[in-house]
Amino acid sequence: MARIVMKFGGTSVADLERIANAAARVKREVEAGAQVAVVVSAMAGVTNQLVGYVDQTSRIYDAREYDAIVASGEQVTAGLMALRLQEMGVAARSWLGWQIPIRTNEVHGKARIEEIGTEALVPRLETGEVAIVAGFQGVSPRGRIATLGRGGSDTTAVALAAALEAERCDIYTDVDGVYTTDPRIVAKARKLERISHEEMLEMASLGAKVLQTRSVELAMNHGVRLQVLSSFEDKPGTLVVDEDEIVEQQIVSGIAYSRDEAKVTLVKVADKPGVAASVFGPLSDAAVNVDMIVQSVSSDGKRTDMTFTVAKSDLERAVATLEKNRDGIEYEDLISDADVVKISVIGVGMRSHAGVAQTMFRTLAEKGINIQVISTSEIKISTLVAEEYTELALRALHTAYGLDAA
Amino acid sequence: MARIVMKFGGTSVADLERIANAAARVKREVEAGAQVAVVVSAMAGVTNQLVGYVDQTSRIYDAREYDAIVASGEQVTAGLMALRLQEMGVAARSWLGWQIPIRTNEVHGKARIEEIGTEALVPRLETGEVAIVAGFQGVSPRGRIATLGRGGSDTTAVALAAALEAERCDIYTDVDGVYTTDPRIVAKARKLERISHEEMLEMASLGAKVLQTRSVELAMNHGVRLQVLSSFEDKPGTLVVDEDEIVEQQIVSGIAYSRDEAKVTLVKVADKPGVAASVFGPLSDAAVNVDMIVQSVSSDGKRTDMTFTVAKSDLERAVATLEKNRDGIEYEDLISDADVVKISVIGVGMRSHAGVAQTMFRTLAEKGINIQVISTSEIKISTLVAEEYTELALRALHTAYGLDAA
Fold this sequence. Notes:
2 copies of one chain form a homodimer. With 406 residues, chain A is of the alpha/beta class. In chain A, 33% of the residues lie in helices and 27% in strands. Chain A contains 13 helices and 18 strands. The first copy, chain A, has an 8-stranded mixed beta sheet, sandwiched between helices. The two termini of chain A are 39 Å apart. At the A-B interface, helix 1, helix 2, helix 3 and helix 4 of A face helix 1, helix 2, helix 3 and helix 4 of B.
């Protein structure tokens, strides 16, 4: 008998009516003969409210208490979903992290799942009882509630699917699948029937907000077949599967963009060994994540320009850190620019096809868009351009790579 | 070093400001050198909201899911209180029922505490760390969250005080102590400095809403010294102690009243063996609790009238049950009256003083108040009168027993 995990995010369980709607979907799978474990998020808004309470109560951030407080949101949804299913005649029981148990490490607030016990769940699933699991949380080695960080319910779902050896992990959300690019910007964006784990991982890291990065990584490592689909519409979503399950591979599967980028340029940095360390060491100490980095070729062998990107929210801290370390780094000027966007084309087909980067550069050039920074990996090419070109660049690239819907 | 338990009810932790106010009281006890365990209720309104969700979700009442849902309220307060104390420089940690553990029986929704483990708490209390315990909940033998019923946080506090062998259990609430009677009705009501467990138990059962009955019972059985005091004012409350700790015992300590009563009279019931069983058996099956019962003396030896009281909320069900069983019971008529009030005088001094009942009957007669039903126990006399006399009767009795404030 097929065993599946279904995950409903905050907007899919935002109120009692939506919980009932989600329960109806669960019932349908049960009636089709599946053994079902359901992972639920907190009702939309609840987690933010709880986090607000925490912020107002203490300037000291105690992650253990934070976890005990915010984990209560999922607990409520799990109980309500179980009750709703019972009301519909489906046997169901709620489960909290410590009851299953979902064992995590000690890193409260951003805990990683280490092990999921299946001894309690499996016999009940086999009797046809639905397990409603509170997402986003587990229990630490010291018996404390530990949360997995924002979006952690996706991770709970995938880890549970791996532990239960589920045939599929369905992620119900407020979009109906993964698109070639953001359909709000590119009208001709197409929903993908399938996408590989690797591509989905890049999409998630590069700004597509459909799935949490960590959950995709976990699905890839454990070979969990994910499906992203809408809780509000009744049609198939996008399957995230192993690369070899995709027969007709596109060269480029999707185009992602992220406005959460800011560019920093250090003008005329000393071009000598150790300069990169003198720049990025202090930034790392200040917990600033650096993304794309380019260093221009020095014309005189003495001074060079160094450009890199940071998250917009880190820009102020990055600039302050660099100014404080100006003497150690030795640069003439610091220029920062928050009006940039990172546009990335993604596709496993790139590995075996030449010219993918060239198409991107040519297309942007034809539209008069200047590329400020380039960075590439095996299956993606990212460029940084002025933010005002976002829509133009996305549409042009979407057409250039043959992704437009017919 | 003194060890105390402090309990804050829903109105005392209604919002973040009040949680801070409660935390300040905890800090003061810590600074005075006490080891402190704190029991908290849910923020006022939260439990009702959660119960509302449950009611709207399912007509089937699954007490296990109900418990998982409503217990989340206390979890949030416990975490917030711990954070607040940390912010004030006081070491603190929140504890849920399953973490301590507070072991209960399987009766979800109305569970009884069977055992409280102290191995985890005591070493931390001894280091000066404050334990913030989520009230109202424990863990069942099957590892499920079990709640203790409404007002259960009082029970948690008293049971914890007993387990920790605490010197005192302070119940912080929105009144500043136990009064001789309801001060909203009788302006001359006095706050009692001390009251015995037995009297408090009667007061609680008879309508005084200061403490939950079960918690007083538990305090009496384990010799826990309770103090009822205000979280909003800075003055001593009322101590609930063993009878022999009260030196100058009043004959009557207090006068309670309950409007939650309804009277049922069965007219001309057959006066024969087994008739009481034929009346009260079906009521018991219908989960109707019967309180006061009187059976008048039969004039002809064949027929008698039988009067008893039930909770107002049960009246409709009681009448329906009796009408359904009319043939089995054999009565001529059924009269019900919801406009009644039960007034009770309470005092352990009654045991050794005659004439206490006589004072009550005479006082009510002087005011022209007809007594409909009487019931007595070792330390209380209750009378049922028409509801419209509530204020008049309370004031007259308060004066007659010498309870008026100077």
